[in-house]
Amino acid sequence: MAYDTIVIGAGVGGLYAAAKLARAGLKVLVLEKNPHIGGTSYLFRRGGYSFPMGPLAFGYPGRVESFMEDISLEDEIEFRRNHFQLIAPDLDIVYSQPLAGLEEDLRLLFPEESDGLRRVFAEMRKILNAVKGRAFGSPLARGLYPRASTAEVDPRVKPGAPAAVESTEEPVVIPAASASPILAWASTSSRPLLESQISNAILRNLIGSMGTEPPDMSLLNLSLTWRVMSEVGIWFPSIGIHGLCRRMAAAVGFSGGEIRTGEPVTKILVAGGRAVGVLTARGVELRASHVVSNADYKKTFLELIAPEDVPPDHLALVRDTPYTESELCVYCGVKPGRVDFRRMRATHLFYRRVIRPDADRKADDFDNMEIEVCRFSDDAPETVPKGRASLVLRVPFAYEAVAAWRAGEKKRKAGYCEEKNRLVWKLIRTVETVLPGLADAVEIIDAATPLTYRDWGQRTLGSIAGWSWSPETAAGFRDRLLVRTPVDRLYAAGVYAARELFLGGVPTALYTGSLAADLIIHASV
Ligand SMILES: Cc1cc2nc3c(=O)[nH]c(=O)nc-3n(C[C@H](O)[C@H](O)[C@H](O)COP(=O)(O)OP(=O)(O)OC[C@H]3O[C@@H](n4cnc5c(N)ncnc54)[C@H](O)[C@@H]3O)c2cc1C
Hints:
Blueprint: E1 3-8, H1 12-23, E2 28-31, E3 43-46, E4 49-52, H2 61-71, E5 79-82, E6 84-88, E7 91-94, H3 99-109, H4 114-131, H5 150-153, H6 179-186, H7 191-197, H8 201-209, H9 219-232, E8 234-237, H10 240-254, E9 258-260, E10 265-271, E11 274-280, E12 285-293, H11 297-304, H12 312-320, E13 327-334, E14 348-351, E15 371-374, H13 376-379, E16 389-396, H14 400-403, E17 406-408, E18 411-412, H15 416-432, H16 438-441, E19 442-448, H17 450-455, E20 490-492, H18 505-524
Parallel strand pairs: 1-2, 1-12, 2-9, 6-14, 12-20
Antiparallel strand pairs: 3-4, 5-8, 6-7, 10-11, 11-12, 13-16, 13-19, 14-15, 15-16, 17-18
Helix pairs in contact: 1-10, 1-18, 2-18, 3-4, 4-7, 4-9
The structure holds flavin-adenine dinucleotide.
Flavin-adenine dinucleotide is lined by residues 8-14, 31-34, 39-41, 54-58, 264-265, 294-296, 299, 327, 329, 453, 457-458, 464, 494-495, 504-506, 509.
């Protein structure tokens, strides 16, 4: 039986594309490798607790809501804003506040840096004003997408419409002439500006990384990231991120689409330069007029397609452009009365106990790293037993640090559990220095390593946050959106289908899923 579209993967991007296509009357089949939907936005149960495998919250709630309204008739979603705090040597600040208030707070904390702060914030404001209202916060999503007309990118936007400034969440067209300074900001590191204006390294790193690491982002990304943190906000939906996935899956079924879980795809079939279907792990060939891959972009091009079906330069670019790294994540079910939460003033606390030079840092030097502590049950009280709380602890962790323990897909060498346990408790002991009592309060515990994100999350080398954010590596891809691929009728959807996370993780996955569906609908009429 032939389909209009086969979607590989039931993560956020794949489910959204499928729901929109099914609603448009196309015959859609989703094939998911895992036994459940949701991809990395999956919620898993341990004891009486449910923990989020990946995303904890996201920006642009208005966009997410309107995406959901486009495919589902169910009730409105409410959103709860999350706040962010940093505790590091000589610093304790809640930084998820409007830019003006933040600048004022920083001037009070670092009065000798007042002039530099004024200049840095003025530069960020200039950049934000120049891109205001454009393409969901990034000029890069539109106007720089040369192979599709504006109407193809978003049918609600009329080609050539003036660049009116609307709310920060609404898309408008960028006149081509305005693109060049924006492109320059996109490829200029923020480090020289910050180093020339701010002499205190703690303050410089706070502005440059929203934490304690040296500035690494481009001027554009840094400004946009601050806008999301300060003005747009990071939010959690009342139905949970897993609830969004369930709604999308229901919308697929309601419109006659089909989702098969536990059904891995091993190959994308290409004939005459055009995607024509897929081969499943059970050896079944399924034909379709279009294929959408929600598998990450490297997996799609380096594992699922025969190399001879991809232009060699594209293959080289995909191989050579790095992804963001992975992390270690510890999920704790706790008796909250036993933890001293007095120093934690926001749902997300980033905590670094000491700052030692990078050269000395080992993979498990947790005292010397930023650890995110999220009190997840603040957002989702229904995920814990009555009177309990859940904490998610996340810390950057390189894939190479655990790679040697992998003996095959979901297989580990002897001793891995003990090593994982060692890492988990070492991390908890560090967090306990800011949340006394934590170790004794834990009654349920589980952990994910980069191997988990590789084998259960299906992410290449356990990457979690899209393509590398460094401006140096951004240059290779001509397009920022990778939804339309060099293989005819093959589309990418999900966080890796955008070269930059211009909306953040979940909304970018929705946006690219929506765009893939629009391109297919446009091609089908
Ligand atoms: C640890 C972690 C923390 C994160 N935190 C945040 C956060 O706080 N906020 C945020 O917005 N985002 C966060 N993200 C990013 C988050 O993953 C995304 O925002 C969102 O879940 C991405 O969805 P996606 O569409 O890219 O698909 P994915 O979640 O990557 O799902 C892809 C799907 O494709 C399936 N698949 C892959 N290969 C095949 C195949 N061969 N055959 C069949 N199926 C296949 C996979 O099994 C999976 O279900 C985090 C991610 C991780 C891993």
